[in-house]
Amino acid sequence: MKRGARGFTLGDLVRESLEGVGSRPSRLFITLAGTVLGIASLIMTIGMAQTAAGQISSQFDAVAATRVTVEPGTSGDKGETEGKPKARVPWDAPERVAGLAGVADAALVGQLPEGVRVEAVRVHDPAEAPAAPPPVVAGSADLIDVVQGSIATGRWFDSGHEARADRVVVLGANAAEKLGINRVSSQPAIFIDDRAYTVLGILGDVGARKTLLDTVIMPVSTAREQLGLRAPSSLDIRIDVGAGSVVARQAPIAVDPNNPDGYKVSAPSSGGALREGIESDINVLFVVIGAVALLGGGIGIANVTLLSVSERRGEIGLRRALGARTREIARQFMLESVTTGLLGGLIGVAVGLFGLLAVCLVQQWTPVLAPWAAPAGVLLGAVVGWAAGTYPALKAARIEPVDALRDVG
After folding, report:
1. Are the C-beta atoms of 349 and 37 separated by less than 8 Å?
2. Is the Cβ–Cβ distance between 112 and 223 less than 8 Å?
3. Which of 106, 99, 92, 102 is nearest to 255 (CA)?
4. Which terminus has fewer CB within 10 Å in the chain: N or C?
């Protein structure tokens, strides 16, 4: 043991602490368990939260983040009648917003009254119970692109049908099943208010406006001329990702420069806000689990360090008799605890990273982890060791040489 004029050197303390930590490997393994589990759970929590947020955010960006809806506002604002529309969506609204930056497509949507009769056949069985007909909506030719829909069979109506106000419809998948139509090769027709409309296609799926799957969809011009549609109910806009705030601010002005406040605009929130919300929700649960595991690890380090102090009273007394000062004894046991916590942090970070990679490999996700997470995990392990070793180190420093040597004798 080397000792200078001022007591033990830093090298002496490091060697003595490493010998103390490694003298009982089995006890060290048990001591590290709590810290390793706590750090590993925290690393996996941060990684899983960020990874899950990235996965959900990418799906959010694919549909919801690319859609803005402009509707007439309704309220009892000053100067307005309660429930009365403050404005109307003009028929040429898609053309008015087409030039805005970030706008990819735009389409009108019109909701027809619930009293419209929709039937697949004209002759009815009197014994058959009447069923509620599917609702009828009107849409522009570009509506299928705006809602990112696909056709299961047949085709969507085009701008020619809309220009001529042809009596054609497209059925949502659920509406087609309800009407008993599963193919359009024979050009089936349905009857809307006793007028025949040719079924062009069946809508398979949509990314937005899932209610379209339950409806009968016809061109806006047809609904306007044949069924008396007075005004569109909304303007649906498909935008580029990230353009939501700009389009939401400019679309009402483009639709009606004289009354932009008369419209209600639904726009996507930022992807960053969504990601932060998801991370926060996941972290609340798993950080608590990690904190409990770390608490157990800290208690384990404190107990083992106290036991080590009791077992090494004779060694402590001998060192005090040879000139070691109280702060040097405290530093040695403090350094042993910090070393144990640091080792637990290193192993815990490794276990957490491997666990995160394993989950992402099984789920085929792209793992995401903040660069500060691993160093913070190692540092946290050292802090836990330091906090757990404070009391045992102070207790070891207060041992008097005479008492310690008497106990050994």
Report:
1. no
2. yes
3. 92
4. C
Q: How far apart are CA 141 and CA 108, in angstroms?
A: 9
The pLDDT of residue 140 is 94
User: Distance of CA 306 to CAs 59, 324, 329, 337, 355, Å?
Assistant: 53, 20, 13, 10, 33
**Model pTM score:** 0.54
Contact between residue 165 and residue 219 where contact means Cβ atoms under 8 Å apart: yes
Helix (H, G, I), strand (E, B) or coil at 67: strand
**Type of residue at 305:** T
Residues in the chain: 409
Beta 136-139 vs 150-154: how paired, if at all? unpaired
Kindly indicate the confidence band of residue 251, based on its pLDDT and cuts at 50, 70 and 90: very high
d(CA 157, CA 199): 10
DSSP-derived 3-state class of residue 356: helix
Q: How many other β-carbons are positioned within 10 Å of the β-carbon of residue 38? A: 28
* pLDDT value for 63: 54
Pairwise CA distance, residues 56 & 238, whole Å: 20
Q: In DSSP terms, which residues pair with 7 in a beta bridge?
A: 4
For the record, the structure tokens of 304 come out as 């083992």
pLDDT of residue 62: 54
Residue with tokens 């509620």, as numbered in its chain: 132
Rounded average pLDDT over 121-148: 78
Measured between alpha carbons, how far is 355 from 41 in angstroms, rounded to an integer? 9
pLDDT for res 270: 53
Confidence band for 277, pLDDT divided at 50, 70 and 90: low
Q: Which amino acid is at 84?
A: K
d(CA 145, CA 153): 16
